Every structure is written in C-alpha cells, then in structure tokens.
Amino acid sequence: MTGAKPLRPAAKVVLDHLDAVRVGDPNAMAADYAAAAVLERPDASFHGRDQIAAYFRTVPQRLGGGAVEFVHVDRERLQVQWRIVGGPGDGRSGSDHYRVEDGLIVHQTVTLNASGDF
C-alpha cells in the first residue's frame, strides 16, 4: 500500500467547497479545484487553480457584508441554488453546476437568475 488518501466522493467535494464559501476562506475554496479547472461565470471565465483562487479572494469585497445562502443542494446532479442576503447584491440568485473528477472540481458553471426567484 502506498498510503494514498482515498478520493472524496463528488458530493463530498461540493459540500466541502460550500463549507469553505460559508466561512469565507478563499484558499479553502480554491483547494477543492483541480490544477487545470475552469470556473465559468456569465461575465468571465477563470482557468486554473491560481486564477480561480484570485477570483475567490475578491468575493468578500464584492459581497460588501452580504452572505451567500445555499437554498438547495442537489447532491446527485452536483447543482446548487443560492442567493445573496444583505450587502449590495441582496436578492441576487443563481445556480452553480459542478463537474468533479478524481476528487476535485474540474469545471463549474455559474448561472445567474434574472430576478431573485428560482
């Protein structure tokens, strides 16, 4: 035996990532992504863990005291519905869809809702 750690199941990877988002730790958020992962937002794409980490470091400032609330987590489809509570983005909402391979996020697509509704 090589002593390698077992891979986290895909749903656990996403749940760990959401925990990092809840506590606002950009390093922990980025640690859940593969080195060559892609994070696609409607306004920009971030390629690689370094760019994704740089993006996550901007999140607390952009939230301006608000917080991300996870409204629904679909563990089978790896899809999360969320909304922002408080701050300048209060009421914005959307969903994230994750693709996980080998225990890390390899692709995330963020979709914003036109209104605060799901």
Task: Give the terminus-to-terminus CA distance.
Answer: 48 Å
SSE ordering: HHEEHEEEE
Count the helices. How many?
3
Question: What is the CATH domain class?
Answer: Alpha Beta
Strand content: 35-45%
Mean pLDDT: 91
Contiguous runs where pLDDT drops below 50 for at least 5 residues: none
Walkthrough of the structure:
- The chain has 118 residues and is an alpha+beta fold.
- The chain has a single domain, classed as Nuclear Transport Factor 2, Chain: A (Roll).
- Helix content is 31%, strand content 37%.
- It is built from 3 helices and 6 strands.
- It has helices at 10-23, 26-31, 48-63; strands at 33-40, 45-47, 67-74, 79-85, 93-101, 104-112.
- Strands 2-1-6-5-4-3 form a 6-stranded mixed β-sheet.
- The protein is globular.
- The chain starts with 9 loop residues before the first helix and ends in a 6-residue tail after the last strand.
- The mean pLDDT is 91.
Write the layout of secondary structure elements.
Elements (H helix, E strand, L loop, with lengths): L9 H14 L2 H6 L1 E8 L4 E3 H16 L3 E8 L4 E7 L7 E9 L2 E9 L6
Parallel strand pairs: 1-6
Antiparallel strand pairs: 1-2, 3-4, 4-5, 5-6
